[in-house]
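Write out this protein's structure.
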Amino acid sequence: MLPKSLLWRAFLLIATLMLLAVVAWLAIFREAEVEPRARQLAQMITSVTNITRTAILVARPDHRHALLEELSDREGVRIYPADPGDVVVAPPDLPLTHRIEALLIERLGPESRLAFTLNGEDGLFVRFRIFEGEAGDFWLGLPRERLDRHFPLQWLGWGVAVLLLSLFGAWLIVFRITRPLKALERAAKKVGAGETAAPLPERGPDELVAVTAAFNQMNRDLARLDEDRSLLLAGISHDLRTPLTRLRMEAEMSVADETARAGMEADIMEMDRTIGQFLDFARPQQHDTTALATIDLAALIDGIAGRYGERVRFSCRPANADFSARVEPEALRRALVNLAENALKHGGTATPVVIELARESDELVVAILDRGPGIAPAEVERLKQPFTRGETARTGAGGAGLGLAIVDRIVRSLGGELELLPRDGGGLTARIRLKPS
C-alpha cells in the first residue's frame, strides 16, 4: 500500500512523525492543564457555595424562599435539601473530576460531594452543609455549562492552517532532496539506452554532490570507452574490406573451377556482411533530433518488401489507418531490412516471410513473421546481447552475433521496443512497437 517513489514515502514518513508529535503535545498539554483547571473550577464552586451559604444564613427566614428564587432565576443556582434517599450519579471517572472533588473536600469539608445527576436532574451538584447536623446538608445545583470547556473554532482553523503549512514545508524539503535523484534517474536511463547523458549539475548536500560527481565521471568514462570501441571496430572493419575486395578479384580471375569460385565468393560475401554488421554496431545510436522526420510507415515497409519480390508479403490493418510516425528513417530502415533478411535466411523458401503493420491502441506495431526454427523464450534476452548466437544459429551461423543486438539498439534509440515471440504453427514473430507521431 506504500507509494513507490522516494518523494512520497519520505513525505508520508515526515507527515506521520509530525502528526504523532502534534498528538503527543496535545496529550502533554491536556495532562498539564488538569491541575490549573481543577483549581480554577474548584475555586469557582467553593466561592458560589460560600456566598450562597452566607446569603441564606444572614437572610431573614421569611425572605429565604424569595432569595432562593432570585438565585435560581438570575444565576441558575438551585438549592435542594439533602435526603438519604437521593439518587445520585457520580461524575465520570476522569483525573479532572477526581481532582475537583478532592479540592472541594479540602475547602468545604469532608461531607462535600460532587455529582452530575440528582434524582434524575442533570447539572453540576455539590453537597455542602449550612446548619450543624446531618439535617443541615443541602445540594447546590449549578448549570453543567460552567464545567464544560468551550473550544474556540478559530483555534481549530489556525491549527489546521499551521498543520497544512508544515506539511507543505515538509513536502518542499523532500522534493528538493529527491529532485536531483530524479535527474540522476533520467540520466541513468539514457545511459542504459546507449546514449550519452548531459553532465548533471553538482550542487546540493555533500552526499548528493558526491553521488552526482561519481555518476558524471562514470558517464564520461563510458562515453570514452564507447568512442574507443566504435573507432576500433570501424578501423578494423574498414581495413578488412580492402583485402576482401582483392580476394574477390583474385577468385574471379584465378580460380577456374566454377563451384570452388562460387564457394569462395559466398564466403567472401559472408565476411563482408559480417564486417557490415560490425560497422552498423559501431555506428553511434544516440537519438539525433535533427534526423527525425514524420514518415508513412506503410510506404516505408512496402518499399522494403518490394525489394524481395514474392519472397516477402506485406499487409497492414486497417488499410485506411494513419501509420505516420516520427522516427529516423534510415535507422528504422536498417532495422527492418536486418530482420527481413534474417527471416529470409532462416525461414526457408517454402513459405514467404510476412510483414504486418497494425495500429494497436496508442502504438504502431510492425511484425515480421517466418517459419524458421524460432527462438526459445528463455533465450530472447540473451540473444539481444552483442556477439551472441543461439544453439540453432538463429542469429546467423556465419555472422558475428550482432544482428539482433543492432536491431534492439536502433529500436530503443527510437523510443520503441523489440519483442521476439513464437509464431503460431512454428517460426518466429519479431515485433517492433513504436509511438505514432
